[in-house]
Structure formats: structure tokens, C-alpha cells
């Protein structure tokens, strides 16, 4: 797809993209940067060395295709007690190191603002976790677009909680209450809410700053598409009173070639092509829709007791499976290594440690369903592939996303998780192997309910592909936004000349 009528250097828009330094935010913001570059915008992505390593190969491929895109790498500050090269927040980052990374980001803010001035962009796109960038853009007289993570739905649900406080009107943590003011009737319990929504925490005030900075910005960008959650996109615009554009699914739009799918995300040295070939051979040997893909994203943590329950459920379910395992519990490592040997011998299971070529796996005909933490990157990628979901929310906004998947879109089944937990904690809840097995069976063993879910998710998959084609909703949104940003640039230049 070509650019939207770019006719020369004077009309070419220059943009800076500043992603957050956690993989779940980093990858979609870089995908958005690549998307704008695909359509004629001159893009610079500002990041640090370890974070650049996650996406640099994608940038280089796009540049070789003639797109105007590059990385600008800023050295990460050396904070006492922070090991060199630790620049990314993930599941294995201890709380004390998170604090130090936060200190480093505060130092980097001055450098980021200086780069905004030096590079003279026509607009900036920054992650929601950089609320200061709204004022920085205002000082430069340029638009700031904010990348808002998760779904429109989850932000509407959170606004309902903040505005109406229905959780304060029940007598216990397990009592059900309704979320007022939303397009659908939805119910939750206090235990399923993020702790910062239940009562004021430091993060509560950060979220308030983020919301205020969005209202000061030119508008927001979501990786969603209208056919997925259009009612909530409209509701969100009304609630926020700001402009917003859904320009997704961005992962589908910018990762259409096999090299992009295979290279997306971080591949450690010594892994990659050889590992992928073995994985693909294994998948090729399986029947269509017969493999269950189990992945809980880059930020999950499970105690040994929960990992044991998952392992037994997968072994007992009778279906082939791929399980992406995060190495964050030394107590469980020995058990998991033995489990891996056992399922390899039976040829029923395939364990991937840490990084997985997720787009490649989801696209393979053998993959039939996904067990997910309900992070929206995985939800969108599963929908694109036309795969129903077992929803197992853990933290962040994921219990809201579960409601979207299971009750609004009806493309998944709940595992039955009852308790939200903090990102840094294991939590006290252990989901039993019997409950895991029941959810898997509902999707993988066939039956009318399963087939209905598959039909619905296949329809959404088709709609996702249409959304990014010429004349599609996301294509039109991006086209209109770029034209609008060109008009802002033209107006600014006219004002200067006058």
C-alpha cells in the first residue's frame, strides 16, 4: 500500500515515536511507527540500546523497502545498583530494579525533550506512560498523539468504576456489582479490579496524570479496529471528549510478509532460525486445528504450584500443545524440564522458553485455539488468525479484557480466575487442573458452543483484514489523520511566513 498522496519534501511529515520500555508497549508503538512510515511519513523511533535490539531488524527491513524510518538510540543512564543492559521492564524485573529503571527514565526525559527540539518533528507519538510529553509538544507548538494501550472497552470500564464507584456499594470482595453506563450489561467483583481502582495508590495518581495528559493532547491512537469494539470506541470519545483513531490491527498491517512475522520481537543469539525450523516441522506434522497454544505474555509470573497444575492439565487434556514458559520460578524449573522431556518423547507437547515466534505459530493451520492472559496484543493476534480463546486474566486491565472476549464478543471461554494480582506478585489463587481442562475441552473437543465461537472469531478475522484495506475503517482513519496532520503543518508554516 502506497503513501497517501505524498508529493515532495515540503509535504512530507516528520514524526518522532517514543515507545515505553516494556515489551507489551514497545512492540505495538514500533508497529505504529512502521505503519506511518509505510504511508509516507518520515519516522524516527527514539529508544535505548537494549530496547532497540527488540525491533531493529524490523526497522532495517522497512528501510530497505524504501520507507523513511530509523532508530535514534540514546544511552541508558548508569544508575547505582542497576546492572548494565537492564533497560526493559518485564516479568523478571524485581521491584527494586523497576524503581531504578524509573529513575533512569526521569533522567532520560531531559534528553528526549532535547531531541524533540533538535529533530524538529511535525508531530510526536508517545506512549501513555510519558504524560510529560503533552506539555513538551505544546511548548514546540506541535501535535502530540498518545498511544493508549489495551482496548477501548477496558478504558471505558475503568472510567465507569472511577465515575460511579459501584464497587463501593457492595458488602464484600466477592459480591457481584454491575458496571454502570456502558453499552452492555456487565458484572464484576471487587477482587477482579486492579488494586489502584479499589483504593488510592501511587499508581492511581499516575493514571490520573495520564488521563489529564491525554485530554491536553491532539488525540489518541489505539491498535484496535472499529468492527472489533466500535460501540466502545464511540463511548470512549464521548467520555474523554477528545479525538481518537483506531488504526489497527497494526500487527497485521505491518507484518504481512513471513520475514516480518518470524522476526517480530526479541530473538536471543543462538536461537531463531534453527529453533523455528524445528518448531515448524513439529507443527507441520500435526492435523489442522489440533494444537493448543498456551502463552501468558512477557510480563507473567506463576508460582511452582500453578505451573504444576498447568502442566498436568495440558498432559491430561489429550490435545497437542505449545506452551511458552517464562523462567521465573527456580523451584519449578526441574519439574518443567522433566515435563518437557516427557511430552517430547510422546510428541504431544512442545515447550518454548521465554521468546516465541507468536505470529508464525498463530498463523499455522495446525493451531486451533489459544490460552491467554488477555493481554490485547495476543487477543488481537489471535483474532487476526481466527482462533478462539481460553481467557485467563492475571493483572493490569486483563479482567476487563476477559469480559470483552467472553461476554461481549463471545469468542472465548473463561478459565474461572477470580482474583486480580499485582504484576510483581504470584497472588494467592491457584486455578486447578480440572478447571483448566474443562475450558480447554470446551474449545478443542468440538460441540455447538465451540463451533459458534469459531464462526464469530472467523468473522472478526475477516473484518480485521478488511479494516486495513483501501476503503476499510482503519485505512480511512489513518488516511484522514495523516491529511489532518499535514493541514496542521501547512497552517503552522503559513502562520510563520505571515
UniProtKB/TrEMBL annotation:
Q: Name one Pfam family in it.
A: UDPGT
Q: Which UniProt keywords apply?
A: Coiled coil, Glycosyltransferase, Transferase
Record has Magnesium as a keyword: no
Q: Does the keyword DNA repair apply?
A: no
| Matching InterPro entries | UDP_glucos_trans, UDP_glycos_trans_CS
Ranges in coiled-coil conformation: 450-498
What GO terms are given for molecular function?
A: UDP-glucosyltransferase activity
* Enzyme Commission number(s) from the entry: 2.4.1.-
Broadest EC class assigned to this enzyme:
transferase
Question: Family per UniProt?
Answer: Belongs to the UDP-glycosyltransferase family.
Question: What protein name is recorded for this chain?
Answer: Glycosyltransferase
Amino acid at each position: 500500500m502506497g503513501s497517501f498522496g505524498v508529493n515532495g519534501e515540503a509535504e512530507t511529515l516528520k514524526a518522532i515515536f517514543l515507545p515505553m520500555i516494556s515489551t507489551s508497549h514497545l512492540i505495538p508503538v514500533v508497529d505504529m511507527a512502521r505503519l506511518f512510515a509505510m504511508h509516507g511519513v518520515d519516522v524516527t523511533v527514539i529508544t535505548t540500546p537494549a530496547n532497540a535490539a527488540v525491533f531493529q531488524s524490523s526497522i532495517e527491513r522497512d528501510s530497505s523497502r524504501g520507507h523513511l524510518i530509523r532508530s535514534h538510540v540514546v544511552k541508558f543512564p548508569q544508575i547505582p545498583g542497576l546492572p548494565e543492559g537492564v533497560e526493559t521492564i518485564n516479568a523478571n524485573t524485581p521491584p527494586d530494579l523497576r524503581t531504578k529503571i524509573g529513575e533512569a527514565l526521569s533522567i532520560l526525559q531531559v534528553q528526549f525533550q532535547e531531541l524533540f527540539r533538535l529533530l524538529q518533528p511535525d508531530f510526536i507519538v508517545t506512549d501513555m506512560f510519558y504524560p510529560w510529553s503533552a506539555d513538551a509538544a505544546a511548548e514546540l507548538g506541535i501535535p502530540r498523539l498518545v498511544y493508549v494501550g489495551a482496548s477501548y472497552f477496558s478504558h471505558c470500564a475503568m472510567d465507569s468504576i472511577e465515575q460511579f464507584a459501584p464497587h463501593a456499594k457492595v458488602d464484600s470482595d466477592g459480591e457481584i456489582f454491575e458496571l454502570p453506563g456502558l453499552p452492555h450489561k456487565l458484572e464484576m467483583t471487587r477482587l477482579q479490579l486492579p488494586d489502584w481502582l479499589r483504593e488510592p495508590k501511587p499508581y492511581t495518581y499516575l493514571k490520573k496524570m495520564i488521563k489529564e495528559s491525554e485530554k491536553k493532547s491532539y488525540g489518541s491512537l489505539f491498535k484496535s479496529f472499529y468492527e472489533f469494539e466500535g460501540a466502545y470506541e464511540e463511548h470512549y470519545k464521548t467520555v474523554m471528549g477528545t479525538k481518537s483513531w483506531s488504526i489497527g490491527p497494526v500487527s497485521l498491517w505491518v507484518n504481512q510478509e513471513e520475514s516480518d512475522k518470524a522476526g517480530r520481537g526479541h530473538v536471543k543469539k543462538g536461537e531463531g532460525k534453527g529453533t523455528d525450523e524445528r518448531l515448524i516441522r513439529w507443527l507441520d506434522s500435526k492435523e489442522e486445528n489440533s494444537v493448543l497454544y498456551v502463552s501468558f505474555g512477557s510480563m507473567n509470573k506463576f508460582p511452582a504450584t500453578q505451573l504444576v497444575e498447568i502442566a498436568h492439565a495440558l498432559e491430561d487434556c489429550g490435545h497437542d500443545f505449545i506452551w511458552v514458559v517464562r523462567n521465573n520460578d527456580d523451584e519449578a524449573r526441574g519439574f518443567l524440564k522433566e515435563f518437557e522431556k516427557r511430552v517430547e518423547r510422546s510428541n504431544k507437547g512442545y515447550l518454548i522458553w521465554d521468546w516465541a515466534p507468536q505470529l508464525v505459530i498463530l498463523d499455522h493451520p495446525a493451531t486451533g485455539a489459544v490460552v491467554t492472559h488477555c493481554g490485547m496484543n495476543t487477543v488481537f493476534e489471535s483474532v487476526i488468525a481466527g482462533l478462539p480463546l481460553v481467557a485467563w486474566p492475571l493483572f493490569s486491565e486483563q479482567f476487563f479484557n476477559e469480559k470483552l472476549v467472553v461476554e461481549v464478543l463471545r469468542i472465548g471461554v473463561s478459565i474461572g480466575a477470580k482474583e486480580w494480582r499485582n504484576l510483581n506478585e504470584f497472588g494467592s489463587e491457584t486455578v486447578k487442573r480440572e478447571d483448566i481442562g474443562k475450558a480447554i475441552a470446551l474449545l478443542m473437543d468440538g460441540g455447538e458452543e465451540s463451533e459458534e465461537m469459531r464462526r464469530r472469531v472467523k468473522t472478526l478475522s475477516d473484518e480485521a483484514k478488511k479494516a486495513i484495506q483501501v476503503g476499510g475503517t482503519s485505512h480511512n482513519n489513518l488516511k484522514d489523520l495523516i491529511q489532518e496532520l499535514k493541514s496542521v503543518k501547512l497552517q503552522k508554516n503559513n502562520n510563520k511566513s505571515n
